Amino acid sequence: MPRVLIIGIDGLPPTLLRRLMAEGRMPTLAGMARRGCLGVLRSTPNYQSASAWTSMMTGVNPGVHGILHFTNPVRGSYGVEQIDARARRCRSIWSLLSEAGATVAALNVPVSYPAEPVNGIVLAGWLCPSPTSPGFAHPPELAAEVGRIAGDYPIHADVRRHASRGEFGQAARAATHGINVKGEVACRLIERRRPDVAAVVFTECDSLQHWCWHILDELHPCHDPALAERWRDDLLAVYQAADAQVAALLGAAGDDAEVMIVSDHGQAPNSGAQVLLRPWLVAAGYLVPRRRSLPRRVIDRLAVVGFGLARRHAPARVKVALRARMPGLQTRAQAGVRGVAADWPRTRAWTETGHVFINERGRWPDGSVTPGADCEALLAEMEGELRSLRDADGGEPVVGAVVRGAEAFHGPYADIMPDLLVRWRHGRIVRALAWRGRTIVHPSPPELPTGAHHPHGTLLAAGPSFRAGGDCPPQSICDVAPTVLHLAGCAVPTYMDGDVMVELLTADAAKEVRRDAVKHLEDADGAAAAGDADGIVLSRLRSLGYIDQG
């Protein structure tokens, strides 16, 4: 069976990669590009990490696998819940490959906690509290082996804590350390286990970009040439470390490996306009607030302040401990950040995860909008109003596009997906909206990263089965799973939304793509079986730094 290696570099924009390859800072990836093909990997419709990585390992859109964000809407309520791998309602390629008899290694893949039982090994990535947590590894004894190789395995690099203090060099060193340790562990495990299919994900570049994009991107509205001159080499050393670890992984996999470098999304300047969506919904009368009592407002405000201090200054280990011991703190803090408790019977629309939900009757508990013509009219009205929003400073449009959720998602979980996806423009920082002669501001604007997600991630593929074609046409992140299965000699399930990337393959490799009808939904307790046998509730943690908008 051919050996397949997937290397994830979270958030890597193809434009930045091309620049770094041209500068000679990523020679390994440049060599792969010469031997194979390089292009855009389109993210999920909301281009968020939790949904995108899950689509990468399942081959389906979020309406099928059920994960929208690190906090997910709860069907039949107005609440959200933090997710982990047990929220995924579709089988992973690691499960499908194992069933077909292949051996696998899935290392550091986001939303893989708790680790699922496979024919091989799993090290859980984001959402895992620590390498000592039950569910970090499969088999469980693998955690001790990782400890012997790496000592303290850094699941979460403390990039945000350092960058928010202006310690950009320390942020870069934390990211580089995380990449190097994860790369060393992955190489050792792959060399020892020799899996048929291996996946290794590095999330540190994305964490760095969120808080340092104004330094890395010369076109960023907040770009400071003096700051860039001081810190650019430190920050770019992170990408050089990633390139070096890719080289080591290629060596561990062998010359005959089929290799795919993938990123879940790209990066762009963060306009900050998304935090003004809720105030605008209130001002426009779509979201009707309910008065909160004074004690509740005080408690929520204290939670906001305390949680904000912890996010900015506490090490990752302390944050993990706080969330494990005070699971309601983040939910309370998020409620305080919103500053709005809705009067649901009078509310027609609200926002979670940066997009718009319609309070449709029969779909939500206190639905106020009649399905059919009334709902359609409201959607059309809101599309027009959103497109009319302007930056109060200069009058430029702030919304690039509005996408209907019904066009973007399909499947058994499409009903918990947003009704309107708002695509914000990235070219300027927006601190207030101009709308119908009014100025809309946030009553208590949160600290925001300087980088935001962009729908175009990176795809770089090379190996015996890939064409040496230079640039390749854009592919979907849902295409990764079918392509990996095909390269591994397995049939592609018919339920998958993605297709095998045949235009990237040689004529021989593109032949005989097999499709097969197999079950795709997990049993209700399928993923939970990999968790703590003592029944400890495994923390549903989000990626550090993704509290407000991940």
Topology:
Layout: E1 4-9, H1 14-22, H2 27-35, E2 37-42, H3 49-58, H4 62-65, E3 71-73, E4 80-82, H5 93-99, E5 104-109, E6 120-124, E7 137-138, H6 142-150, H7 159-163, H8 168-193, E8 197-202, H9 204-216, H10 225-253, E9 258-262, E10 266-269, H11 277-283, E11 289-290, H12 294-313, H13 316-325, H14 329-338, E12 341-342, E13 349-352, E14 355-358, H15 373-388, E15 390-391, E16 399-404, H16 405-408, E17 420-424, E18 433-435, E19 438-440, E20 451-454, E21 456-462, E22 470-471, E23 475-476, H17 480-487, E24 492-493, E25 515-516
Parallel strand pairs: 1-8, 1-9, 2-22, 2-23, 5-6, 5-8, 24-25
Antiparallel strand pairs: 2-21, 3-4, 6-7, 9-21, 10-20, 11-12, 13-14, 15-18, 16-17, 18-19
Helix pairs in contact: 8-9, 8-10, 9-10, 12-14
Structural features, described:
The chain is 36% helix and 17% strand. It is an alpha/beta fold and 550 residues long. Strands 1, 2, 5, 6, 7, 8, 9, 21, 22 and 23 form a 10-stranded mixed β-sheet that branches. A 3-stranded antiparallel β-sheet has the order 15-18-19. The radius of gyration is 23 Å and the shape is globular. The two termini are 38 Å apart.
Derived from helix and strand composition plus strand pairing, the structural class reads alpha/beta
Count of DSSP H/I helices: 17
Considering the protein shown, what is the CATH homologous superfamily of the largest domain? Alkaline Phosphatase, subunit A
The pLDDT mean sits at 89
In total, the number of strands is 25
pLDDT < 50 runs, ≥5 residues = 523-550
Subunit arrangement of the protein:
single chain
Number of domain modules: 3
Q: Based on CA inertia axes, which overall geometry fits?
A: globular
**Portion in helices:** 25-40%
What is the radius of gyration computed over CA atoms, rounded to a whole number of angstroms? Answer: 23 Å
Fraction in beta strands: 15-25%
- CATH C-level label of the largest domain: Alpha Beta
